[in-house]
Amino acid sequence: MAKCSVHVLVKYERLLSTYRPILHPVCVYLRGTCHLHTQAQSNSGLPRIALDYSFVPYHNRFHIQKRNLFRTRKNKDGADEDVHCHTMEDIAERIRSQKVDKIIVMVGAGISTPSGLPDFRTPGTGLYDNVDKYNVASAMDIFDLSYFVKDPRPFFAVAKELWPGKYRPNPIHYFVRLLHEKGVLMKMYTQNIDGFERAAGIPAKMLVEAHGSFASATCTTCGRTYEPRDIEDDILNERIPHCRGHDLAGLGRVQHHCSGIIKPDIVFFGEALPRSFYKYLADFPKSNLLIVMGTSLEVEPFASIAECVTRGTPRLLLNRRTVGTFHLKLSNDVVMEGK
Prior knowledge:
Helix content is 31%, strand content 13%. The protein is an alpha/beta fold. The strands form 2 sheets. The protein has a 6-stranded parallel beta sheet, covered by helices on one side. Strands 5-4-6 form a 3-stranded antiparallel beta sheet.
């Protein structure tokens, strides 16, 4: 029954990104019901599932979840672990003393700007300014699926600027790679679509690219998949890439003709997040250190998974400003602000 409940919760998350205002009261009730049921089942020997509350509005999250009330940080012997982290030195000491071996890193666009990658909204230099000639009503339309179907040119103008290879990773990306090489990185969850993580040498299996990437592409009409090299020339030369059909019978010639638009596998508004994103349901309760960098923690559901580590697990925020529930200065939260 617990597996069934997990499946239902994943379905909720996909629906909530679009229908959050309507479904919120229903999900509050159902989530509570699921918890009571799985709690009772766990007492009879079946595994208890880890619940998250990412559908909860920001101002209610702390009161409802309180950093996963139903689980506490355990040490290697299975006993409750008494953790005290108040400074960067405390975090560093836990890493040096090998008390941390399952680090999850969450990152946003802020870690890419040191590479020279322009942001989206800065007047004059922001990527959204580059699409003014297309008379886009709202900058958000660039990543709107329904708008893309009508006019894909604004998106491909931005895609040209973001295409992998034009900019290089910076020390932040190589820091995460170092964590992997030292064997302490559990997973890196990124909102970024620039591909710097892969370019820095972080293996794909260690990445959860919540908003997709340019590492693959798909025809929006027939669903045929393409490699980046198949569409790179079109994008860099400001042409719309079109599908070339299928050789369904393996005869060496096209059997199924299609001229649909090929879209890089970037998650647009109106699209579901990749299935790999929902691994957080299993990953975060196992983590013994969460590092959050370069993100406003405003875009859901990505923002709320920072609350899904177990109670007592240290969380480190390296950011221009304090964001999310780090404002609440919870136990074992460490914040370092800077430019």
